[in-house]
Amino acid sequence: MTTTLITGASKGLGFETARRLVGAGHTVYVASRDAGRGRLAAERLGARAVALDVTDDASVAAAARAVEADGGLDVLVNNAGIQVEMGDDQEVAGAAEVTAEMMRRTFETNVFGMVRVLHAFLPLLRRSGAPVVVNVSSGLASLSRMTDPGMVGYPYPGVAYPASKAAVNMVTVQYAKAFPQMRINAVEPGFTRTDLNGNSGLQTVEQGAEIIVRMAQVGPDGPTGGYFDAEGPLAW
């Protein structure tokens, strides 16, 4: 039995990924900052709930202890993320408006939170016979895409979110090199309708979760240290 933990899994892409992996036979932990919402989501899915706030050391450590006590972990999906530069009016703070505080808050969840979770769960993953890590990135993290006027994401003016996801990609590469026995990849779900973007995305969560689910199920001979969307490898 494959045991999988998904951060930010009480709604959106995380919830859909959990649903699909439960259907594929995984034992899934729905990790959520809001413990009550996480329990409700887990009940709906036939999954397990664990309280986990990626910005809090004690919360992450407690979650790791709970999962270890239950038997361990094979797959970690780092899905939790925020986009603080997107205001209530859905206007994006561009280079003239972005502040250091916006950058700090974004990186606290999207980068430092991911590393905090990786660090806490690495001992469990290293005991697995086929450990897998999926880091949810973004097409906006691609320097190649963001410097090509012909690419769909090129006009996006935000700074904090793309920069944080570019950091996610580098963390992915370095962890993959450090732990060659693991399959560690970054994925771009696409512009999906979720609370992150005020449900302004162009595709459904079912479509967005496709690449996350696929990479969560790679075998020991699968790719590692890569960056993928549903169509295949992406340029960094």
Please name the defining characteristics of this protein:
236 residues; alpha/beta; Rossmann fold; eight-stranded mixed β-sheet; 7 helices; 42% helix; globular
Write a concise synopsis of the structure shown.
This protein is of the alpha/beta class and 236 residues long. It has helices spanning 12-23, 35-45, 57-69, 100-126, 143-146, 160-178, 205-216; strands spanning 3-7, 27-32, 48-51, 75-78, 132-136, 183-187, 227-229, 232-233. It is 42% helix and 14% strand.
The biggest beta sheet, please?
8 strands, mixed
- Domain count, please report it: 1
Low-confidence stretches: none
What would you call the shape?
globular
CATH architecture classification name: 3-Layer(aba) Sandwich
Cα distance spanning the termini? 34 Å
Whole-number mean pLDDT? 93
What is the spatial order of strands in the main beta sheet?
Answer: 3-2-1-4-5-6-7-8
Cα radius of gyration in angstroms: 17 Å
Helix content bin: 40-55%
CATH class division: Alpha Beta
CATH level-4 homologous superfamily: NAD(P)-binding Rossmann-like Domain
* Beta-strand fraction estimate: 5-15%
Question: Can you describe what's shown?
Answer:
This protein is α/β, with parallel strands linked by helices and 236 residues long. It has a single domain, classed as NAD(P)-binding Rossmann-like Domain (Rossmann fold, 3-Layer(aba) Sandwich). The chain has seven helices and eight strands. An eight-stranded mixed β-sheet has the order 3-2-1-4-5-6-7-8, sandwiched between helices. It is globular. The chain starts with a strand and ends with a strand. The mean pLDDT is 93.
